[in-house]
Target: CaCA family Ca2+'cation antiporter
Amino acid sequence: MQKYACLFPHAHLTLTPTLHLRDKVSAPMNIWTFVYLVIGLILLVGGAEVLIKGASKLAVTVGVSPLVIGLTVVAFGTSAPELAVSLNASLHNQADIALGNVVGSNICNVLLILGVSSIIAPLTVAQQLVRLDVPIMIGVSALVMMFGFDSLIGRSDGLILFIGGIVYTVFLLYQSQQEKDPAVQDEYAKFGEKSLSFKETGLNAALFAVGALTLILGSQMLVNSAVQIAEYLGASPLIIGLTVIALGTSLPELATSVMATLRGERDIAVGNVIGSNIFNILIVLGLTSTVSKTGISISESARVFDIPIMLAVAMMCLPIFFTDNEVSRREGVLLLAYYSLYVGYLVVDAVAPSSIWAIGIGVIFLPLTLLIAGLLGWRTWTKVKRKRAASE
Model:
């Protein structure tokens, strides 16, 4: 098995530590472990929703425009579950869960959420996303991979990411003053009008506090349950973070994007995903690394496989979005197929790390991803050439 170690990055993490991890289990896993896991996910999603409502109404009360609220409070709010879980995991020395949550959520956002949304209806991609936001997402993903070369995202690295998140937020605030799209204006106008009612302000403050406390409680239940399951199964906490926790913390983005698609606001569905991915890296991973005493350690499997996959998935967005400024149903099926393959790889890796099928997926997945990205780029270039030839 040693000769496959470089091709099958997760295997060496799940074979030798199994007995060691099981010896550390403080309490036997039972049905309540899964109940707490589900309750934790529900509290995270519900807490994020309550937090967004309370914060949005409070911002309106103090005179912040609805558009700015949508671009900042809501963007932060949909990433609040990731922030709560990663901070909680980092403070309890669960670096694999903290990192896996961010990396897994970013992969899930593009492959699963955009896949599902585009199958419901082809998604419209705004020019700004292609020109600015997607390149930023690719850039910050590459920055994480660069910071992780030494197997650690240190506090200084985290501070750089967090400052970048502040700069990006300031840019969004400036950009909001230039927004002219009526559809976007209508979307953000849903937060209501300014109210000076003391009773209503108190209620909104209470909602904000309840949302924050619910997020904290939910993240604690989720992390504790996930760690206990990982220890019992002998699986790496990184795999739990990349799958169960990442999917759970991405539920607000999934709900937001699907509802926007059903309402016909298909450009907002795409923007929500890209914005969330940028915030996850800059704010969530940046703040988590900054407040951690030792930074976030990166396992070899995450460094050589999962983070490069996150970068490859981000890069795939550019040729897909650039093609007719749309994510078609066919491309949505492709994205979903990739997500199924990725999760399947992680599951088989955890259950049967010596499986030839699992080794085969580990060998072909990354090259195949890069190949598809290259083919999509080539197709886009040929379409551009044909359009130029036709215009001449």
Remarks:
- The chain has one domain: 2-386.
